[in-house]
Design a protein that fits this description.
The complex is a heterodimer of chains A (420) and B (297). Chain A is α+β, with helices and mostly antiparallel strands. Helices cover 24% and strands 33% of the residues of chain A. Chain A is globular. Chain A binds chain B through residues 4, 7, 15-16, 20, 24-25, 28, 92-111, 113, 115-116, 119-120, 122, 124-125, 129, 132-133, 136-142, and chain B through 20-28, 30, 42-43, 45-46, 48-50, 53, 56-57, 60, 128-134, 205-206, 291-292, 294-296.
């Protein structure tokens, strides 16, 4: 039987930007004054859509705006979206950590939220004591914890260390223990935020298995936020795509992930800043130009050589700088990372060229990240998603026309001939 | 519960019969009074674990352990005896100085500790409050209770001195008012908690008050008959000492156990009403703050 266990209606959350100070005191006083006179909150209307990249005009933003959705019993709902889309705010409201500015949420049954693994772990206490402490923080009674203790210890695989203070645990053990406690809480609704990102592959697999297990066997409901499309795809049957505080897409997991990737991808081959003052950077360096160039007129494909050109102003004479360029697939896997030699630079305009040979990248969408590094160790400025581009497939000989597997598609010396 | 019993019990119309039953409702509403006693009860195991954690944690890796609880009142009593008793020559209502100061110190520091520690609840726990929900009131409550352990140990020390002095000094006269002791403890804890809740809520957004608190507590001790008996206060300043809700408690405590001091039911009633008021107000403002405090810290 399927029935609604979570109903979210017109949920909105407004945040005030900037620092606390006399300005916020003035707003508070003004707000109280409006309330006394029976008028609406003067700052409720002025918030704007949350797009971090653009400087807003108002001090208030909507981290969530009119979000509505329902979740059925036994569903595993994935929530995806880029950073700042409102995922964490949504989870915070669902787990009662903060109150919405507008709208409502209704839920059935007990909720456990795992926004962080091992919340409230005390380093001086032993593993056993921390299981009790953590379990009761999550809402279990001491007796329930006692009943589940063995299972928890077994799942976490820390039986040998159970009477050792957790400050002597490895970080992996802490993560496993934290997850084990929450997973054995038997909540009707489990809210999980990105915690799997910290464990190793074996643990991730086990954790995902456990979550699948509880939904299938006991009909529990899971909300799962992750940037790892692979785990979302394996775990969830439905997903929400969040964008700028709203729901951009709600549907089957594959379709949603596709929408996310498509939405995130916008080819961006060049950026140029003529004014040093307004160029991205800081008082040490400022970026003037970043560009992807390739020789032919047709779109970039796997058989073409292309190059990245960067130009930047170095502001501090005599400093040793090198660039670090990372290329990511649109799914977030790093394909390669290359660095220039470290050079001593004057206060001057510097340029750098990176040539990517033909027959290296597979077809697909890519984005680059550029780091400016001082003395080969200190990152002084980083630019994520500086350029994004697409490498098209080239005409192939032969019969296979499906997706070519692999992160790269190198042309290697690989042949066959009759043995002589 | 089946549909029919629900119908009978609530006598609802057939239309609202379809209305679903939700366990948790989150909305933007701000109810003024919402004490959630049921939730507090639900988290009682957590309360006890937090108390136990505080208790075991403080004296981990020390040799004397909880005996350190005794150092503070002994040294303070010694210092007060020298400074206020001998150098300044302030009267102690005819009872031995040691007993007089220790009575005041034991009571006052329970109050001061409760207030001090609870007043930073939000600041000290933002890490955990930001990641998981439980009734926030559990944390300051656990502080008041773990301080009660310290108070208990110090009170036992006071009792030892009392037994000793009661045998050697005729002025020391414990009397039937000692039965009020549990009530006095509740008053002190309640006052400390109430003020603490108030201050921690106010300092979430504007931290100015924190600076005031540290020496505010110090000053307040001098507005309480800890180092002097109430009977020696000049009538001109008497009102100032009387509006302090801790005054009747300290005096009653001292009167009950040593027979020295001024006991007044009226003043004690004032302390009780004051405590009830500050505790209720503190809880209201604390509840209001917990709903959105993560956005402002």
């Amino acid at each position: 039987m399927s029935s609604k266990v979570i109903a979210v209606e017109n949920l909105s959350k407004r945040y005030r930007l900037g620092l606390m100070g006399l300005g916020s005191l003035r707003h508070d006083v003004n707000r109280v004054w409006h309330r006394v006179r029976g008028k609406a909150d003067p700052y409720a209307k002025i918030g704007e859509v949350n797009d971090r990249a653009q400087a807003g005009t108002s001090d208030y933003v909507w981290a969530l705006r009119d979000v509505s959705f329902n979740v059925q019993k036994g569903e595993i709902l994935g929530i995806i979206g880029k950073n700042g889309a409102g995922k964490s705010t949504l989870l915070k409201i669902l787990s009662k950590i903060t109150q919405p500015s507008e709208g409502s949420v209704k839920m059935k049954g007990r909720i456990a939220s795992l926004l962080e693994v091992g919340t409230g772990f005390h380093p001086e206490l032993t593993g056993r004591d921390n299981i009790y402490l953590n379990g009761t923080i999550l809402g279990m009674s001491r007796r329930e914890v006692s009943r589940k203790l063995e299972e928890i210890v077994e799942f976490a695989g820390v039986a040998k260390y159970i009477d050792t203070p957790v400050k002597r645990y490895s970080s992996g053990m802490i993560v496993r223990l934290g997850f084990a406690v929450a997973a054995h809480l038997d909540p009707e609704i489990l809210i999980v935020d990105e915690v799997l990102a910290v464990g190793d592959a074996a643990f991730q697999k086990r954790a995902i298995g456990k979550m699948k297990d509880v939904t299938k066997k006991d009909g529990r409901t899971v909300l799962f936020v992750s940037h790892n499309m692979q785990s979302v795809r394996t775990l969830c049957n439905r997903a929400l795509l969040m964008h700028n505080g709203g729901i951009a897409f709600d549907g089957g997991v594959n379709e949603t992930i596709h929408q996310y990737i498509a939405k995130a991808f916008k080819p961006h081959h060049t950026c140029f800043f003529s004014q040093k003052e307004s160029a991205p950077g800081n008082n040490m360096i400022r970026l003037r130009r970043a560009e992807l160039l390739h020789a032919e007129d047709q779109p970039l494909n796997v058989t073409m050589t292309f190059k990245f050109i960067f130009e930047f102003w170095n502001e501090i004479p005599g400093v040793d700088i090198n660039l670090s360029l990372s290329l990511f697939s649109i799914r977030g896997e790093c394909i390669f990372n290359v660095v220039t030699p470290s050079r001593s630079l004057q206060k001057e305009l510097v340029s750098s060229i990176c040539i990517v040979p033909a027959n290296l990248l597979n077809d697909g969408e890519y984005t680059i990240k550029l780091l400016f590094v001082k003395d080969t160790t200190q990152v002084i400025f980083a630019m994520e998603d500086l350029l994004t581009f697409k490498v098209a497939d080239a005409g192939r000989t032969g019969f296979w026309h499906g997706k070519w597997n692999g992160a790269v598609r190198p042309k290697l010396d690989f042949d066959l001939a009759p043995t002589t | 519960m089946s549909q029919t019993t629900l119908l009978q019990r609530k006598n609802v119309s057939p239309i609202s019969q379809k209305k679903e039953k939700w366990d948790i409702e989150i909305s933007s509403e701000k109810k003024l009074i919402d004490f959630k006693f049921k939730e507090l009860w639900h988290y009682r195991d957590l309360l006890m674990l937090l108390v136990w954690r505080d208790y075991t944690h403080v004296y981990k890796q020390t040799i004397l352990g909880p005996l350190w609880y005794l150092v503070q009142p002994i040294l303070m009593t010694l210092a007060f005896s020298v400074v206020f008793g001998n150098i300044a020559g302030i009267s102690t209502d005819g009872i031995p100085q040691t007993l007089f100061y220790m009575a005041g110190i034991t009571c006052w520091y329970y109050f001061a500790d409760c207030l001090n520690k609870t007043s930073t609840t939000f600041k000290d726990n933002q890490q955990i409050f930001g990641k998981v929900y439980f009734t926030r009131l559990i944390v300051p409550l656990s502080i008041v209770i773990s301080n009660l352990i310290k108070f208990g140990v110090q009170f036992l020390l006071f009792l030892c001195f009392l037994v000793w002095f009661a045998q050697t000094n005729k002025a020391v006269q414990p009397n039937a008012y000692v039965l009020l002791f549990p009530f006095l403890v509740v008053l002190i804890g309640g006052l400390g908690l109430g003020f603490g809740l108030f201050i921690t809520s106010l300092t979430v957004k504007y931290r100015d008050l924190i600076f005031l608190l540290q020496f505010g507590i110090q000053l307040a001790m001098y507005a309480t008959p800890v180092v002097y008996p109430l009977s020696t206060v000049a009538p001109k300043y008497r009102w100032l000492i009387d509006i302090n809700p801790m005054t009747p408690i300290v005096e009653a405590f001292r009167y009950a156990f040593t027979g020295a001091g001024i006991f007044s039911w009226g003043h004690l009633l004032y302390s009780f009403l004051f405590m009830a008021f500050i505790l209720a107000a503190g809880m209201i403002i604390f509840n209001r703050t917990e709903r959105n405090f993560m956005d402002t810290v």
